[in-house]
Design brief:
- Helix content is about 50%, strand content about 20%.
- With about 290 residues, it is of the alpha/beta class.
- It has a single domain, classed as P-loop containing nucleotide triphosphate hydrolases (Rossmann fold).
- An eight-stranded mixed sheet has the order 3-4-2-5-1-6-7-8, with helices on both faces.
- α1 runs parallel beside α6, α6 packs antiparallel against α13 and α7 packs antiparallel against α13.
- The longest helix has 19 residues.
- The chain is globular, with a radius of gyration of 18 Å.
């Protein structure tokens, strides 16, 4: 089994070529439960960072049910499914949303993308990482849950935001995901983002509920990344397929995302491992 794992890593490395070298900050944004606003957060955070003059690449890593492009009304002619099938080179995949922001779209409703083997997944993510070279931020919008793709991507990134809300099922699933992430990589920097809270006090209370459970059963603390308030402008923007930070820059939710962007720019939560390190860790972990 160990020899097989070694051969797999060697094969993927030979197919993909040398790892990219850059200092991008790599952040995986994930959730234990779907429907908590994870993709909306990623899209608006990316737009907010780009609006501050930062270069950002976003990988839609919900490979089989990708919808980041739908949220931003992009309709890309190519996606990672075309790359996997050899129908398009990697350079044709990214879509520029605004200056400084590139989206690397996944595929939606494509069964083969939802069930990638380790070599296929590593190849796709390596190509995405190569396309992210030269950017300051590489954001990864994972699928929800504790599937292998999610855990491997988060472990490789090393810096993870777990999005949750006040629903008991969302908090339970967030705890389950955090437990799995730390069992895979005890050094991963995991922080929670509370979405849809009434205000900061309510968001802090939700985080504290999660943190108490994590402390009780895992003996650790889950960091506080920030929050996004409940705001009808989020729904309106989603119906228009635009980022709410662009359509309604002064609304309460936009101010929350701006605070999250400022925290990232200020270095809160620690620096990412860079795309090169991300690729190396993903390749090493893909055969586990």
């Amino acid at each position: 089994m160990r020899d097989q794992a070694h051969r797999l890593r060697q094969m993927v490395t030979e197919q993909a070529g040398p790892a990219p070298t850059d200092g991008a900050r790599v952040l995986a944004v994930t959730s234990g439960k779907g429907g908590v606003g994870k993709t909306s957060l990623v899209a608006n955070l990316a737009v907010s960072l780009a609006g501050r003059g930062r270069s950002v690449a976003v990988l839609d890593a919900d490979f089989g049910l990708a919808n980041l492009d739908i949220l931003l009304n992009l309709n890309p002619p190519r996606n990672l499914g075309h790359l996997l099938r050899g129908e398009a080179p990697a350079e044709e995949i990214p879509v520029e949303v605004v200056p400084g922001l590139r989206i690397i779209p996944g595929a939606s409703g494509v069964g083969e993308m939802a069930d990638l083997d380790p070599a296929q997944r590593a190849r796709l993510v390596h190509e995405a990482g190569r396309l992210a070279e030269g950017t300051e931020f590489f954001l990864i919008d994972t699928a929800a849950g504790i599937g292998r793709n999610v855990v491997d991507l988060c472990a490789a990134a090393g810096e993870v935001w777990v999005v949750t809300n006040a629903e008991p099922t969302a908090l339970t699933d967030a705890y389950g995901l955090i437990k799995v992430l730390w069992s895979r990589d005890p050094d991963a920097r995991v922080a929670a983002v509370v979405n849809g809270a009434g205000d900061e006090a309510a968001a802090r209370a939700i985080h504290d509920r999660l943190d108490r459970v994590v402390q009780r059963f895992l003996g650790r603390r889950v960091d506080w990344a920030g929050f996004v308030v409940q705001d009808d402008h989020v729904r309106r923007a989603a119906l228009r397929q635009v980022a709410f930070v662009s359509a309604y820059p002064r609304c309460p939710a936009s101010r929350c995302v701006a605070a999250l962007a400022d925290a990232l720019l200020g270095g809160k939560g620690g620096g990412g491992r860079g795309v090169a390190r991300f690729w190396q860790r993903l390749t090493a972990g893909g055969s586990r």
